[in-house]
Design goal:
Layout lengths: L2 H28 L1 H9 L8 H13 L13 E3 L5 H17 L1 H12 L5 H4 L2 H33 L9 E3 H18 L2 H10 L5 H6 L1 H15 L4 H31 L1
Parallel strand pairs: 1-2
Helix pairs in contact: 1-4, 1-5, 4-8, 5-7, 7-8, 9-12, 11-12
């Protein structure tokens, strides 16, 4: 295929991906009341499953008890006339992207498959399954772990008792959406490393060499978003460490294959 033919294929990939997002966004918009009340605003209440887990853990091991509460100490407000309507639209689009992610992956696979060997193309289903599972696991990790920890920290942070927290709706939703989708993409690290290893940009030796620095970065991130106790930091760090180690194993396997060839 010529360069222009590749651009044409890419254009149709984007068109089909956009259509999938719009269809899923329309479905999400239909159930927007459930999405907002039962999912997006759920981490405000003290009976949210994550808060209950950390509260039980704190009572059992005499740790920080900031999660033992009835509700986060702030109110959410919309300060513009079209604030709630536009929020509903953009949130539906974000949910549409999440729901349509497997379709986008399938379109991406069809785009790159002509550049793969025949033996590699047969792994299309495995690629779609593993990538989708990692993405949704990342979404769940971001929503149930990182988001509540961040909301609890930021919601309880005080520079002075004079200042009252009335959080803007967009600011609150930004944390929910950005954290969840970012974690979903971060959980794609093994897949990304697979392709980077295939084209020779990353090797297992490189990843092992930067392991200590990667661990320090993970611990810093965990320390920022969690309460000041070791247990919470470990809970956040463990999945990131596992992903990094899986990436090393994937890169090492590809390196061995290249030596055989």
């Amino acid at each position: 295929m010529s360069f222009l033919d590749h651009l044409e294929e890419l254009r149709w990939l984007l068109v089909r991906g956009t259509i999938a997002i719009i269809v899923c966004a329309a479905i999400a918009f239909t159930f927007s009341s459930f999405i907002f009340d039962e999912i997006i605003f759920a981490p405000i209440d003290g009976d949210f499953i994550t808060y209950q887990f950390f509260c039980d853990l704190a009572n059992k091991y005499d740790l920080d008890k900031s999660f033992c509460m009835e509700r986060l100490p702030f109110e959410i407000q919309s300060r513009t006339m079209d604030g709630q309507f536009s929020t509903d639209i953009w949130t539906s689009i974000a949910v549409g992207f999440i729901l349509a992610f497997p379709v986008i992956l399938w379109e991406f696979w069809k785009f790159i498959s002509p550049a793969l060997y025949e033996s590699e193309r047969k792994y299309a289903v495995a690629f779609l399954f593993c990538t989708s599972v990692l993405f949704f696991l990342g979404i769940l990790f971001g929503y149930y772990i990182i988001t509540p920890l961040s909301l609890n920290f930021l919601g309880n942070y005080r520079i002075s008792d004079v200042v009252k927290n009335d959080i803007d709706l967009q600011s609150y939703l930004s944390i929910i959406k950005t954290t969840s989708i970012s974690c979903g993409l971060i959980f794609e690290l093994p897949i990304i490393m697979y392709f980077l290893s295939k084209i020779g940009l990353v090797t297992a030796v490189t990843l092992r060499g930067y392991r200590r620095y990667a661990y320090v970065i993970m611990l810093i991130i965990a320390a920022i978003v969690t309460p000041p106790d070791v247990v919470s930091q470990v809970i956040v760090t463990i999945p990131l460490v596992i992903l990094y180690e899986i990436s090393i194993l994937i890169a090492a396997r590809i390196d061995r294959r290249k030596k055989v060839v």
